[in-house]
């Protein structure tokens, strides 16, 4: 019996060795291409091939998008003005933290810091201020909503007109005191803020620092000088807390069926469709590259030059 046990142990050891050797043999193959992980595994059962797929169809279309919806981050600047067929409105809402029902607003001044420009450098930068009648969210406001009938009052609540000036500068304008007085009342309709709309004389678009800019000294500011009803106390309040965004619109330029177009701000989106019938059912795609050829004659990366270098 002891002899048979020894034979049994020997056979068991041999079988274990065979299993281990078999496993090592199956897993010993190296990667044939480090850019395609798994390409060297079980390559007796997998066919690896490279195909080039040609475009089946394409199209370009104009899409007006929410300003910061693509970036998924707060805005650093808003656009105001008009340049050719490009128009931009800015919406601003100041947060009045402490309601004051018993004050008379003597003056209200809006201060903005201008940081960018485009358009006619010798032209006029002009806009009017309007009270917004509808609720809005900075992450959802679109051109269609902002330009719709009734979104803002036609009555002007403030005006500004000037020339280009320095690249970065601060501008100030007076706002209607009755409108600002309503923002401080606790028993009136909620504060929907103001819309800055360029005039027909405007030939420039300027960028202004937003509330989300990292330096508080550059953010929009509302300075309110108010007096109590009895006229004995005068106080000055400065507000730099709020929400803002901008919307823009442009008449589409003639689109060519021979080109696909992309553009920031006013987004020209391009859709491409490929014929994937060459790919077998169940194929695992390890990598893919899209090859496009830029047309230098139709490429412009900034307002100063058509150079292909940003």
Textual characterization of the structure:
The chain has 310 residues and is mainly β. The chain is built from 3 helices and 13 strands. Strands 2, 3, 4, 5, 6, 7, 8, 9, 10, 11 and 12 form an 11-stranded antiparallel beta sheet that branches. A two-stranded antiparallel sheet has the order 1-13.
How does the SSE layout of this entry go?
Blueprint (H helix, E strand, L loop, with lengths): L1 H26 L27 E9 L13 E7 L2 E9 L8 E17 L5 E7 L11 H4 L11 E5 L6 E6 L2 H8 L9 E5 L5 E6 L11 E8 L5 E6 L2 E9 L16 E8 L36
Antiparallel strand pairs: 1-13, 2-3, 2-9, 3-8, 3-12, 4-7, 4-9, 4-10, 5-6, 5-8, 10-11
> How many helices in DSSP terms?
3
Largest sheet geometry: 11 strands, antiparallel
Query: How far is the N terminus from the C terminus?
Result: 87 Å
Number of strands: 13
Report the structural category. Answer: mainly beta
Radius of gyration: 32 Å
| Strand fraction | 25-35%
Order of helices and strands: HEEEEEHEEHEEEEEE
**Level of helix content?**
10-25%
Residue-averaged pLDDT, rounded?
79
Weakly predicted, low-confidence segments: 69-73
Broad shape: elongated
Salient structural properties:
two-stranded antiparallel ribbon; mainly beta; 13 strands; 310 residues
In short:
The protein has helices at 2-27, 143-146, 177-184; strands at 55-63, 77-83, 86-94, 103-119, 125-131, 158-162, 169-174, 194-198, 204-209, 221-228, 234-239, 242-250, 267-274. The chain is mostly beta strands. The strands form 2 sheets. Strands 2, 3, 4, 5, 6, 7, 8, 9, 10, 11 and 12 form an 11-stranded antiparallel sheet that branches. Strands 1-13 form a two-stranded antiparallel ribbon.
